[in-house]
Amino acid sequence: MKSNKIDSSDEKITKATELLWKIWWFSFYLIIVPSLIAVVGFFIYFFIGKDLIVSVGLSIITFMFVLLFFYKSFDKYRKTPFFSNNVNNLSARINIIFLITILSLIVTPIFVIFTPGDNYFELLPLISFSILYNIVYYYYYFQPIGFFDPSEDKFNHAISSSQIIRQPYNIIILVNYIVHIVFLSYTFNTKVSWLFPLIWNIVFYVISRVSSVKICKNIKISISSKKPFIVDLTIFKKKFVNSLLSLVFVLLIQMPFVIVIVYMYVGIHHDLIEIVNISLLSLVFLAFYFKIRLYVSSFYSTFLRRFKINEF
Q1: Has residue 302 got a pLDDT over 70?
Q2: What is the 3-state secondary structure (H, E, C) of the chain?
Q3: 192: phi then psi, degrees, rounded to nearest 5
Q4: Region 150-172 average pLDDT
């Protein structure tokens, strides 16, 4: 009896110790370090620019960047780690790119709400996105989906750098970054440049998650049962590319109209010829969208046909 009580007591002490250490590392990596760096950054920004609003905005972005960067260090202390889990790479790829984009864009409305008066840092959405999006590349290094190696029981990157660069599911990440930068740069003086990308990122995040739930589940089952799933993985990559492709072209197609719509709201109207010109530009983007969508479909369909031929 005494032995059982001692064992039970030791187990409770061990659990309590582990919990305290987890709380400490959570506080250190996700609160203390980001806060200290953000405060130091604020004084540096203020010393350089002498602008309180800009300094606060940049220090918030600094805090978020450091927070996201150091999450990888805290992740190993979780019972179910996000980035050390070799099975969740597919859903993580969707979560990271959309959630970090949404987080970078939602900084602006939060900042505006707590900023007194009409003070507004118009470039905040552009700077926030251009900085925080780099975390996507950092995390994708740890969450590859090139192929699944049964011997290591985990996903790996493609075999060579040239193969990695040529893959549409990697190319679209850079395209997504460039289009968002162009959109935010073009519309920053409307003061609502963050609104349209934020709305569409939320919409396509929901679409991507819902459309991939079943196929991710099938792939997890195949991994656990040691069955091949290259077809399902290829279909997932195709869905992922098409989701981001649709997102970037929705932004491109509506981009010419954003300034017109915002200016009309405040009472400034454009000539008919200007509206015709931007309509034509949107049609050009629409034509490019269908052409690239066709290429993506052909790329993955060709791969699937080759696989099925080799299988037989």
Answers
A1: yes
A2: CHHHHHHHHHHHHHHHHHHHHHHHHHHHHHHHHHHHHHHHHHHHHHHHHCCHHHHHHHHHHHHHHHHHHHHHHHHCCCCCCCCCCCCCHHHHHHHHHHHHHHHHHHHHHHHHHCCCCCCCCCCHHHHHHHHHCHHHHHHHHHCCCCEEECCCCEEECCCCHHHHHHCHHHHHHHHHHHHHHHHHHHHHHHCCCCHHHHHHHHHHHHHHHHHHHHHHHHHHHHHHCCCCCHHHHHHHHHHHHHHHHHHHHHHHHHHHHHHHHHHHHCCCCCCHHHHHHHHHHHHHHHHHHHHHHHHHHHHHHHHHHHHHHHHC
A3: -130, 25
A4: 82
CB within 8 A of 40, min separation 6: which ones? Answer: none
- In whole angstroms, what is the distance from residue 215 CA to residue 90 CA? 10
Least confident of 3-7, 60-64, 214-218: 3-7
Q: What are phi and psi of 156, to 5 degrees?
A: -130, 165
Model pTM score: 0.83
Residue 186 identity:
Y
Can you give the pLDDT at residue 118? 56
Sign of torsion over alpha carbons 86, 89, 95, 96: positive
